[in-house]
Amino acid sequence: MERVPTVSGTTNLVDILDRVLDKGLVIAGDVRVSLANVELLTIRIRLLVCSVDKAEQIGLNWWKYDPHLTMPAPVIPAIAEKVQTRKRRIASKPVRRRRKQ
């Protein structure tokens, strides 16, 4: 009976995923559609797979400022009205100056 070589040591999916998220993985490619040597469509694909911590470490934090991904803090109408009333009241008061002694 012939022996089949095996890999010594075990690596499971969790270890691989942990390593990819820690170090990062970049996939880059171009898709071009041409007809009779005339380029009709070009799609450039750049994919970065990493953890959020790693992305921030390398300067990628666009999700913090994207309005489609970040939601504004919920505003309670009663509190918002009180804040606006207070702002108007403060703006309408005359400025008092201290007398010099």
Summed up:
By secondary structure, the protein is an alpha+beta fold. It has helices at 13-23, 52-57, 77-92; strands at residues 25-35, 38-49.
Would you kindly provide a written description of the structure presented here, covering whatever features stand out?
- Helix content is 33%, strand content 23%.
- It contains three helices and two strands.
- The protein has a two-stranded antiparallel sheet.
- Strand 1 and strand 2 (38-49) form a beta hairpin.
- The termini are far apart.
- The model has no long low-confidence stretch (mean pLDDT 78).
Question: What attributes characterize this protein structure?
Answer:
101 residues; 2 strands; alpha+beta
β-sheet strand percentage:
15-25%
What structural category do the secondary elements indicate? alpha+beta
What is the number of independent domains? 1
Report helical residue fraction: 25-40%
Set down the secondary structure blueprint:
Elements: H1 13-23, E1 25-35, E2 38-49, H2 52-57, H3 77-92
